[in-house]
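Troubleshooting log. The previous structure file for this entry was overwritten by mistake, so regenerating from the original sequence record. Sequence copied from the archived sheet and checked twice against the printout by T.R.
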Amino acid sequence: MKYKYDKITIIGMGLMGGSLGRILIKNNIAKEVIGCGRNINRLKIALKKGAATSVTIDLEKAVNESQIIIVSLPVMLIPEYVKKILTFVNKNCCITDMGSVKEIIVNEIAKFDKERLFIGSHPMVGSEKAGIENIKDDLFKGGTCIITPMKNSNHQKIKFLTSFWKDVGMRVIKMTPKQHDKYISGVSHFPHLVSFALINCQKENILKRKEIIGQGFKDATRIAASNEEIWTDIFIANKKNLIKDIDTYLKTLRNLKNLIKKDKVGKIKNEIKNAKKLRGQIQ
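Regenerated output below.
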C-alpha cells in the first residue's frame, strides 16, 4: 500500500480530531495516525473507533518524526501546546490547528515559533455534538478550510498544508488571521451566540409548553446544543469582532421592532424580502 504521508499526529481526539484521524486511515492517506491527549481512556475509544493507528499521552513520542501535527484543542490551549511540541519536532514538519479563532493564536505562537513551522487552519465544519463518540466519516468532505499564513510563512509549508486539506476532501482558501476573525465572527461565532440567547429567552415556553414547539424553532436553535467550554473560549478570544456584530444586530432588531410597532406593513415586507433574497445566495 502506498501512502502519501508516513506519520501524522493529532493532539486532541474529540469530534474534529477523531473524525480527521478516521478519514486519514479509512482513505489510506496516512500510514500512521498518532492520537495524543491527556486522558488515556478517551484515547482508547479513539483507537477502537479507528480514529488512530496508535495512541499515547506522551507528547514527545507522539510528535517525533511526524510530517504534520494537528492541534485540535480549545483555542486558548493551542499556543501552549504548540510551544511544548516545538522542543521535540522535526524542523521539516508542518504544525497546524483547527481552531475557530486565528489572530490571537497566530500572534502568540509567532513570539516563539522562530522556524515558522506553524500555519493556522480552520476547517469550516463541525457539529453541535462534541466528543470522540460522535465522529463522522464525511465531516470534512466538501467543506471549506481557511488557512491563515503570515507574511513570513514558508511558502513550501503553505503549499504542503494546502495539499493536505485537499487530500481530506476540502476546498482551501487563504485569509489573513485578522480577516478570518472578522468574517467568521459574523457567520459562525455570532449565530451561535444568537442561538444560545434565543433558547434562554424562551425558557418559560420550553419548560412549560414544549409540546407546541415546531421545527422552525428547532432548526433555528440546533447549534444551541454546542459545548459551553469551547464556545466560551471562542467568544472571549474574538470578542472585539463579536461585540461589533452584536451591536449591528441590535440596531437591525430595533429597526424591525419600530416598523412593527408603527404598523409599517410595506417596510416590514421589504425587510423580509431582502432577508429572503440574501438567504437565497447561500447554498
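Residues 177-201 form the longest helix (25 residues). Archived copy saved in two places this time.
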